[in-house]
Design goal:
The chain has 420 residues and is α+β, with helices and mostly antiparallel strands. It has two domains: 115 residues, SH3 type barrels (Roll); 289 residues, Alpha-Beta Complex (Fumarylacetoacetate hydrolase, domain 2), CATH 3.90.850.10. The chain contains eight helices and 27 strands. Strand 10 and strand 11 form a beta hairpin. The model has no long low-confidence stretch (mean pLDDT 97).
Length: 420
């Protein structure tokens, strides 16, 4: 992920809101998404400050040209994802030049973000979820089996399972409390869950395609990383605990997955690349086929906030660093395809719960409860999420000398279970 003039910290835009300190979407970011206005046809756009650049409108005015812009202008980003990283880099350069302060202002190409509706970047055909945080696995594993807290394969490969693609939804979509089977008072019941949880994760959108039977080697895996988002792997702990042996999560995970709608491209994150932290003393070395020798980690600070119906505003309950993850997105791609599995353009990967080592870095309620119920500033407490509770994820990439860039929000509110 090369750093170039589009990342320059002194670069500003003629869109004034993009130059505000702490803005999620400065000109150094330029995330891609699919939006619509007042029930109109979904189409491609670029977030800039509190506005959206309409790619199709810019093309109609002759200000954007080429196959990459055409691929990003329609109702799905999958055509652009299929073209690969060179196409998204080309589009980034062209949009940066159009929005830079040195270019003539063209406000007629913009729509206020407050006036649009965001959609998924494209139909999600496949969704795989990883478990790549040492601290998450060790914390919950020690509560279950202190002598063997980690899965046997954890040090050797990024552990994952195939999750449900059809229930991925954009931020803001409400989450219905599910019914399910679980242990309660010594018997198995079929009832609404009492243990709704969140999992703070990074989502990874896939670029390009490998033929079935042809792995993507670690040396090329970064070229399969189109972009990133925030991802909430909503989890139903009582159902999950009962159903997991021996095949793993099913109905406890498939009810709903929320993603932030703006795709932060891999090109935008180039200044925030970092090396993985060293492995623990005595831990096995990373296998050669998953060792790249590049700084494939990312400096991203992620937060989860909880707002109950009785609260005036959200309260941050988790603050976790993505750079502490044990496995990188490139390693996830290399492992996923190592058996010849064909990853498709627009496939979605979840990083797994992004828990950090420090107190307050527990990235799900199941971990937070190891220290006791969550105490909120208005005097309320929570063991698990209740009806009407809202979870809000935010994230910001940061590095010395670089302009920080954000991800926008990933939020969801719990609705009551169906009556019958």
């Amino acid at each position: 992920m090369p750093i170039d003039h589009t990342h320059a910290s002194g670069l500003t835009s003629w869109v004034a809101s993009a130059n505000a300190p702490g803005c999620d979407f400065p000109i150094q970011n330029l995330p891609l998404g699919i939006f619509s206005i007042a029930g109109g046809t979904p189409r491609g756009g670029v977030a800039i400050g509190d506005q959206v650049l309409d790619i199709g409108l810019a093309m109609a005015h002759g200000l954007l040209r080429g196959a990459a812009a055409e691929a990003a202008s329609g109702p799905s980003l999958r055509p652009l994802m299929a073209m690969g990283r060179a196409a998204s880099a080309e589009l980034r350069h062209n949009v940066s030049a159009l929005l830079a302060a040195s270019a003539p202002p063209r406000p007629e190409l913009l729509h206020p973000q407050s006036a649009i509706r965001m959609h998924l970047p494209g139909e999600v055909r496949n969704f795989s979820d990883f478990m790549a945080s040492y601290d998450h696995c060790a914390r919950l594993g020690a509560a279950r089996d202190p002598k063997n807290p980690l899965p046997p394969a954890f040090h050797h490969l990024p552990v994952a399972y195939h999750s449900r693609a059809s229930s991925v939804r954009p931020s803001g979509t409400n989450v219905r409390r599910p019914w399910g089977q679980y242990f309660k008072d010594g018997e198995i019941v079929f009832a609404p869950t009492g243990t709704m949880d969140f999992e703070l994760e990074l989502g990874i959108w896939i670029a390009g395609e490998n033929e079935q039977g042809e792995p993507t080697p670690i040396s090329l895996a970064d070229q399969r990383l189109f972009g990133f988002c925030l991802l909430n792997d909503w989890s139903v702990r009582d159902i999950q605990r009962y159903e997991m042996p021996p095949l793993g999560p099913f109905l406890g995970k498939s009810l709903h997955t929320s993603v932030s709608p703006w795709v932060i491209t891999a090109e935008a994150l180039a200044p925030f690349a970092t090396a993985l932290p060293p492995r623990q003393a005595g831990a096995p070395q990373c296998p050669p086929h998953l060792t790249s020798g590049r700084p494939d980690g990312l400096r991203i600070h992620m937060q989860a906030a909880l707002q109950t119906p009785a609260m005036a505003g959200p309260h941050v309950i988790t603050s976790a660093p993505f750079e502490n993850m044990y496995w990188t997105p490139a390693q996830m791609v290399a492992h996923h395809t190592s058996n010849g599995c064909n990853l498709l353009p627009g496939d979605l990967l979840g990083s797994g719960t992004v828990s950090g080592p420090a107190e307050g870095g527990e990235a799900c309620i199941a971990e937070l409860l190891l220290r006791g119920p969550i105490q909120l500033p208005n005097g309320e407490s929570r063991r698990y999420l209740e009806d009407g509770d809202t979870i809000i994820f935010t994230g910001q990439a940061h590095a010395p000398g670089a302009t920080p860039i954000g991800f926008g929000e990933c939020r969801g509110t719990i609705l009551p279970a169906h009556k019958a």
